[in-house]
Each structure stands twice: as structure tokens, then as C-alpha cells.
Amino acid sequence: MTLTEGRYRWNGSELRPAEGAKLALFVADSFLIRDGAVVAPELHRARFLRDADAQGMVNAPTAFVDAAFAALPASGLWFPRLDLTERGELEVWVRPAPPLGDTVTLWTSPDDPRTEPGIKGPDIPSLAELRARAQEAGADEAVMMDSQGCVADGATTCFVWWRDDVLVTPPLTDVDKRDTAKRVSSVTVDVVREMASETGVDVRYEEFTPADVAGHDLWALNALHGIRGVTAWNDGPTLSSDSERLRAWKHLYWSRATNVSEGA
User: Fold this and answer.
1) CATH code for the part of the protein at 103-257
2) Which of 15, 135, 157, 210 registers the highest number of CB atoms within 10 A of its CB?
């Protein structure tokens, strides 16, 4: 069975078209699939299972995850999402991918609407509204700050930056302490860290303020676009841009995509 565009619900043994309104989310996980291939499908599987367990799901939804991955389209460009809803329903939403980009501009949010920063899913509606506010302000993405003036996260992205030839990434997230985490454990950041290790690039784990990245190369990461260079921060620091490095790392990132059946 290969799924077409639409939303499907797991009935315990198979995926069937979902009826009715979309339900509030407890867990979600989305990723780009290009002609049947996904970057780090095993990490997306693991994160969804881990977060479902953290949200109190008694029986691991392994069969659902396996069935969903196996039924994803083998051709074309898609942006599917796995969902665990507030009623305990398991769904997969097969969506065409929106246009992909290489660069992004930022806007600083005056507030942080998240209620569960450590788990992807519950805050998706409020973060979508936040991103819409950024677009109204002439930017692509919203940046949320913590009480110490450090960058907490983006509405749909996580950030890494370059201090000369050193890659600076957020501190590792303790997945057992999601209730105190300031951000989701990012699959894309994990992949970029692996790439750095494999290519001999030094990695530092640090929180950062906008002033810290002034004059440096800042990247926005997520599983839809992979790596995007930040070209402007509307109310923030002036940044530099190494377009050659960005192109090389984007190519290396997408070259890691594997057929989803290989992650089963």
C-alpha cells in the first residue's frame, strides 16, 4: 500500500483515511521525503517513539511507525507528519512539500508562546501563529529568547553558527528532562554534528546571544529545508555569509538521505 495525499489513522492493524477535524497534538514528527529517501529516518523514528513514551503512551507505537514509513510515496517531494493526538489516536498526514529555500531572514519575537518546549507537537499551532507574525514583519522565521537573553529556539528551526572554523551548536538536550528543556531535540542538528565529526570539524556546545553571532555565519536548521543560511536578522545583529561553505554542507547533508525502508 502506498499512501497518496491526505490524512490517515491507524486502527491497530492498518492505515485508513481519517475523518473529522484534526485533533490537538501530543507528539508530532515531520521530515522531507524526496523520491522515497529521507535524511536520518532512524532518528525520526526514534524521536517519535521516545516522545510518545514520554507523553504516557503505554504501548509503543512501533507498528504504526513502521507501517507509516513503509507506505510513504516512493516518488515526488513530500513533507509527511506522524501524529499522536490528545485522544491517543495515531495518524500520518501525507502533505506535498512546500517550496524549499537556501536562505532565511529572522525576526525576534517579544514573547515565547510555548507550553512544552521539549516535545514537538503540542506547540505547533502557537508556533505557526508566531511564524505568521514574523512574516507580517517582513521576515521568514521567528526567534524566541530565554530570560537570560540567549536564543531559545526558532518557531520552526534550530540554530548553529560558525566561529571561524569551529561549529557552535546548542548544548545537548537531556531527553529525560523534557519538562525543563528549552528546545526540542533536533534531528537535523544531530545530523550536522555527525557531519562535523566525520569531516574533522571542531564542535562547541554553547548557548548564544544575538551579540555573540554578530559578524559570524549563522545557520537555521530543520528537517524540511535542511540547512539554510541566515542572511538578515531584522532587529538583530549584522551577519556574515560563507556561500561556498553553505553549498558544500547542504550537498553533504542531502547526500545522507536513505530509502525509508532501510530505516525499518
Assistant:
1) 3.20.10.10
2) 157
What are the structural domain ranges in the chain? 6-98, 103-257
The pLDDT tens digits for 92-136 are: 999 999 999 999 999 999 999 999 999 999 999 999 999 999 999
Q: Over 7-73, what HEC string results?
A: EEEECCCCEEECCCCCCCEEEEEECCEECCEEECHHHHHHHHHHHHHHCCCCCCCHHHHHHHHHHCC
Instruction: For domain 6-98, give the fold.
Output: D-amino Acid Aminotransferase; Chain A, domain 1 (3.30.470)
Residue 122 DSSP SS3: coil
| pLDDT tens string 186-238 | 999 999 999 999 999 999 999 999 999 999 999 999 999 999 999 999 989 99
* 161 neighbors 229 (Cβ within 8 angstroms): no
* Model pTM score: 0.95
